[in-house]
């Protein structure tokens, strides 16, 4: 019976399936076929040989990563940078979207929205150049502080590790807050205006309308992005660390991605890098399912 219903459904939607065939083929070729390379994490791969010709080593590379003296440092930096990004970067676009949604002047609203998401299109190379111009020893900030007699000597903001987490979090927030706001504004645009009218009749002020109507109406969007954010907690960045970090700040900038790149790609230990990447992917998927289950139990909202 189920097979018959499935065939009927397939026949009814045959035109959609025909349209989807090129995309399905694209996904199979570029998303699933490369997954064969996962086997590299379990062998001692040597360039020039195929993966199947390499010696099987099992979980040796995973054990090497856990036993590495850099593992605690790399894990700490990854969780710290990702945690700060979630702590400040997750609510920021929600707040900005609410503020933009409350603006009545459409031209001003569009102008502010455009300005806010333009940094998303700036490459990290340019952002790094801006940070060096602002925070370098001879940068604008040190120059202003010295002229105001607040400090006597330039502060090495980019050369001291204690400033790195704050700088990278601020840069990520500035670069992505406007772009993330677009999703929430789209969700808010779907809220029925009659609900606001009914709220005003019931005596709700502007803050009350936001708290009791706007936020509950976009809860599913918030939960979806929160779950995806938790799943990507090990994605602490890559380009920004390599561009802004240096030898003096390595103790604070080295994350899983940069570690896998240096020891897996630069040193030619591809199996080791593949093992680190696979481990990160497994943890990410596990966190997604865990966050989804938590959301389903506590908020009665899930994406799976």
Order of helices and strands: HHEEHHHHHHHHHHHHHH
Q: Which CATH architecture of the largest domain would you pick?
A: Orthogonal Bundle
Q: What is the total number of structural domains?
A: 2
Range of strand content = under 5%
Q: Which sequence of strands runs across the widest sheet?
A: 1-2
In CATH, the topology of the largest domain is named: MetI-like fold
Shape: flat
Main sheet properties: 2 strands, antiparallel
List low-confidence stretches: none
Radius of gyration: 25 Å
Question: What is the gist of this entry?
Answer:
With 304 residues, this protein is mostly helical. It is built from 16 helices and two strands. It folds into two domains: 1-40, no CATH class; 43-299, Orthogonal Bundle (MetI-like fold), CATH 1.10.3720.10.
Written description of the protein model:
The chain is mainly alpha-helical. It has 2 domains: 1-40, no CATH class; 43-299, MetI-like (MetI-like fold, Orthogonal Bundle). Helix content is 69%, strand content 1%. Strands 1-2 form a two-stranded antiparallel ribbon. Helix 3 packs across helix 16 (270-298).
Q: Which descriptors would you attach to this protein?
A:
two-stranded antiparallel sheet, 2 strands, mainly alpha, MetI-like fold
Question: How does the SSE layout of this entry go?
Answer:
Elements (H helix, E strand, L loop, with lengths): L1 H11 L1 H19 L10 E2 L10 E2 L3 H8 L3 H19 L1 H11 L4 H12 L6 H12 L4 H8 L16 H26 L3 H9 L4 H12 L1 H13 L7 H6 L5 H4 L2 H11 L3 H29 L6
Antiparallel strand pairs: 1-2
Helix pairs in contact: 3-16, 4-9, 5-9, 6-9, 10-11, 12-16, 15-16
Family: Belongs to the binding-protein-dependent transport system permease family.
Membrane topology: Multi-pass membrane protein
Keywords: Membrane, Transmembrane, Transmembrane helix, Transport
């Amino acid at each position: 019976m189920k097979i018959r219903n499935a065939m009927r459904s397939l026949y009814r939607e045959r035109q959609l399936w025909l349209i989807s065939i090129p995309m399905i083929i694209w996904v199979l070729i570029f998303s699933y076929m490369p997954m064969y390379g996962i086997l590299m994490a379990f062998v001692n791969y040597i360039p020039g040989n195929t993966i199947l010709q390499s010696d099987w080593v099992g979980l040796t590379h995973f054990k090497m990563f856990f036993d590495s003296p850099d593992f605690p440092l790399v894990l700490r930096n990854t969780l710290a940078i990702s945690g700060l990004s979630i702590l400040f970067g997750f609510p920021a676009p929600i707040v900005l979207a609410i503020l933009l949604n409350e603006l009545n002047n459409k031209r001003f609203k569009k102008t502010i929205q455009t300005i806010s998401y333009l940094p998303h299109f700036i490459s990290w190379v340019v952002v790094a150049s801006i940070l060096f111009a602002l925070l370098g020893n001879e940068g604008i900030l040190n120059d202003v502080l010295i002229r105001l007699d607040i400090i006597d000597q330039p502060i090495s903001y980019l050369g001291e590790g204690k400033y790195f987490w704050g700088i990278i979090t601020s840069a990520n927030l500035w670069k992505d807050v406007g772009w993330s706001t677009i999703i929430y504004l789209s969700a808010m645009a779907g809220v029925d205006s009659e609900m606001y009218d009914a709220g005003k009749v019931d005596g709700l002020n502007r803050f009350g309308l936001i708290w009791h109507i706007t936020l509950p109406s976009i809860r599913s969007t918030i939960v979806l992005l929160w779950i995806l954010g938790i799943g990507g907690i090990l994605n602490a960045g890559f380009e920004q660390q390599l561009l802004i970090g240096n030898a003096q700040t390595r103790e604070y900038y080295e994350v899983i991605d940069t570690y896998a790149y240096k020891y897996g790609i630069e040193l030619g230990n591809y199996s080791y890098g593949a093992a680190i990447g696979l481990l990160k992917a497994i943890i990410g998927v596990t966190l997604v399912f865990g966050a989804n289950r938590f959301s389903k139990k506590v908020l009665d909202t899930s994406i799976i």
